[in-house]
Prior knowledge:
Elements: E1 6-12, E2 16-17, H1 27-40, E3 51-55, H2 66-73, E4 82-85, H3 91-104, E5 110-118, E6 124-125, H4 128-139, H5 143-152, E7 161-162, H6 163-167, E8 169-170, E9 175-176, H7 177-187, H8 192-211, E10 222-223, E11 229-230, H9 242-246, E12 268-277, H10 279-285, E13 291-300, H11 309-320, E14 330-333, H12 338-349, H13 351-358, H14 378-381, H15 385-403, E15 407-414, E16 418-426
Parallel strand pairs: 3-4, 3-5, 14-15
Antiparallel strand pairs: 1-12, 1-13, 2-12, 5-12, 6-7, 8-9, 10-11, 13-16, 15-16
Helix pairs in contact: 1-2, 3-15
Amino acid sequence: MSRSVYIVDGARTPFLKARNAPGPFAAADLATAAGSALLARQRFAPDQLDEVILGCASPSPDEVNIGRVVALRMGCGQKVPGWTVMRNCASGMQALDSAIANIQAGRAQLVLAGGVDALSRAPLLFSDTMVRWLSGWYAAKTTGQKLAALRSFRLGHLAPVIGIMKGLTDPIVGQLMGQTAENLAHRFHISREEMDSYAVRSHQRVVAAQDAGYFDGEIVPLIDRDGTVWRHDDGVRRDASMEGLAKLRPFFDRTYGRVTAGNSSQITDGAAWLVLASEEAVARHGLTPLGRIVDSQWAGLDPAQMGLGPVHAAVPILQRHGLAPNQLDAWEINEAFAAQVIACQRALADIDYCRSELGLPGAPGAIDEALLNADGGAVAQGHPVGASGARIVLHLLARLQRDGARRGMASICIGGGQGGAMLVERIG
């Protein structure tokens, strides 16, 4: 990058698991709570930001440009532009990359960027059949026409279309995201036991990190209308076990499948933010950066194999900087599915895959398991689609700070057949 882009600070909400009903917070509530707390501890006023960029995959109809809505609610003032980006699972990372681009171009110096989604509030929709019936009903003018419309009505017309299921289905290949994980399990011969073992480890690592207080510095507690305080990611299972996960049936391919709700990321609500600044903004406001984003990359691949996106995005960064995977100090790969992370590991070590799909002469090699998602990931914490890309960058930097380490990679798979990655370096 021609100009340094610094990470000054960051914060997120607890990630709250969806439980078959709207959660206690709308997306704008989540983003406002985390962002307001983050801005309150800065050396600059909210109205000194150059812009606010928020990634969101599923904004509600009354918050379509949720970035602007939240910017105003946080007290940034009318003159600070707020806008929204969407790149499916990487919307939060796209917000960071958009901020980087504007800082690099000199259009901005100080940016609040992040992501949010309240997937528990994804809408139930009318079917096309019901919409056509309603259209006919409203068009009916005479009593006879209305009676004819009533006679044509069937209770089945009221069957809802689950919005989140449509959103998680790829329109090109016609497969749910979980079915693409099944594709990877088949391609890389990943067993059900391997997936469940990975899922158990994710829960165990998150529990250990919670008990050690590793998330405390990044999480802003929430208080709902009833006075309940939400302090932690609440989908984590302290009793996760192979025996318990083995009882779950495959969800996406009920006959031959291996991917279950237990070895998949949870449907979740949450928000995450980072403050990004140029060198000029750091000097002007007397800021103390925690780290900097050294490089970023986006990649495309077969939508039916979308889970391998982290490999396709991270490898070019490694090549540009002359690095092998294990020369980094930490990795965060978003855990959309246990099968997907395992497949990324196997692809990195597969010479044939790296030659045919990445054009490499050989394989970079798998990531050391001790470096990868050391504090667990989305299988245990959840995956609020718009927020996850920002969360993994935020937590990667926290890991580097905690360990006194130098640099790490955050990478994410993206529905539609894409991948995103960012190389982060600690300062100090």
